[in-house]
Design goal:
Strand content: 15-25%
Order of helices and strands: HHEEHHHEEEEEEEEE
Shape: rod-shaped
Number of helices: 5
Strand order of the largest sheet: 3-4-5-6-7-8
Structural class: alpha+beta
Length: 345
């Protein structure tokens, strides 16, 4: 219902009657009592402003059912806040589960007074931040404390200190790169001086290779710097065979010096076949297991001297005295040289 209002013309007359005033106030009081009693609702009420020349007109929407508006229990004076009215809110909590705050990064930063918000997609500078189990893809990190070796770093900000910390310091832990060493590691020597100044004056204390090595040249000399002994070793596996081949372009293995570790014998190979064998017992010709100091299996020929005398006790010598006489001389354990002759026809 509309609340009855007092007609201003009644009050503005020079002689308002009591009856008119009573009638105006009675009608207005009746409407107010009905509203305050809850028996009659307000319809588009209006509230005058301070000067009374304008009104706050309350508009409503169509409801599907009655709605109750509960006013808070105020402990002091307060102000009603409207949607379009600029107002600073105090003691308010916004539940983001059922509410959405929208705005730009600049707007949020303008609202924050003690910090700065950053964008996940933007290029930002972070200070005094702790990252737990981060995944960093691309980019670079600078101005940080050196990462310890135990944490996957080098504990250093320079390459030389990093190598030292990692145990690969050049000159003490590892050898600096050298073209000659690289060639040796590859198992080849191609006219490169080792310890000398020219390929003709190569000096080496140890030469080893894990592959097949080739020396290109006519002479390989081994000369000890102190004039002492020289060792040339061919070390095979246990029970295996060591071979030192000699040959030419047509046949590189036609001649050989062979040591059979399993049989404990040394053999000379000529034209691809064994010509002589040495064991701890003696030398075999045509015999790989000699039973005597000289064990010949096959025809034996020799040329005796024309004047031969045995030197040591037990020596036996042959002398071709002339075309028809072969003299045999033997020196006994008593030191006496005795002889006999064989007539040749």
């Amino acid at each position: 219902m509309a609340v009855s209002t007092i007609d201003p013309s009644v009050l503005n007359t020079s002689t308002p009657t009591v009856a008119n005033l009573v009638a105006q106030f009675t009608a207005a009081q009746t409407d107010i009592n009905a509203i305050l009693g809850g028996t009659s609702p307000l319809t588009t009420p209006q509230i005058n402003d301070t000067s009374g020349d304008h009104q706050y007109v309350v508009g409503v929407s169509e409801l599907a059912a009655d709605r109750t508006i509960t006013l808070p229990l105020l402990t002091g004076d307060d102000t009603v806040v409207f949607e379009g009215h600029a107002q600073t809110l105090t003691n308010k909590t916004v539940n983001l589960t059922s509410n959405t705050l929208t705005g730009t990064l600049a707007q949020f930063n303008a609202a924050v007074s003690d910090a700065s918000l950053v964008s996940l997609a933007g290029a930002e500078t972070l200070t005094n931040k702790t990252l737990t189990s981060p995944t960093i893809s691309g980019g670079s990190v600078s101005g940080i404390t050196d990462l310890a070796v135990a944490d996957g770093g080098t504990g250093a900000s320079t390459a030389s200190v990093a190598r030292t910390n990692l145990g690969v310091a050049i000159g003490s832990d590892v050898q600096a790169y050298n073209a000659t060493l690289a060639a040796l590691a590859a198992g080849t020597i191609d006219g490169v001086a080792i310890g000398g100044t020219t390929p003709a004056a190569i000096v080496a204390t140890t030469l080893s290779t894990t592959g097949n090595g080739t020396f290109a040249g006519s002479t390989v000399s081994l000369t000890p710097s102190g004039g002492g002994d020289v060792d040339f070793r061919a070390v095979a596996g246990a029970g295996a065979t060591s071979r030192y081949y000699m040959g030419d372009a047509a046949s590189a293995t036609v001649g050989a010096l062979i040591y059979y570790h399993g049989a404990m014998r040394m053999a000379f190979q000529v034209e691809g076949a064994e010509a002589a064998t040495f064991t701890s017992t003696g030398m075999g010709i045509g015999e790989t297991s000699p039973d005597y100091k000289l064990d010949v299996n096959g025809a034996l020929g020799f040329t005796p001297g024309t004047s031969v005398t045995p030197v040591d006790n037990g020596d036996v010598v042959f002398e071709l005295t002339n075309n028809t006489t072969l003299t045999i001389r033997a020196k006994g354990t008593d030191g006496t040289v005795r002889s006999g002759t064989v007539a040749l026809s």
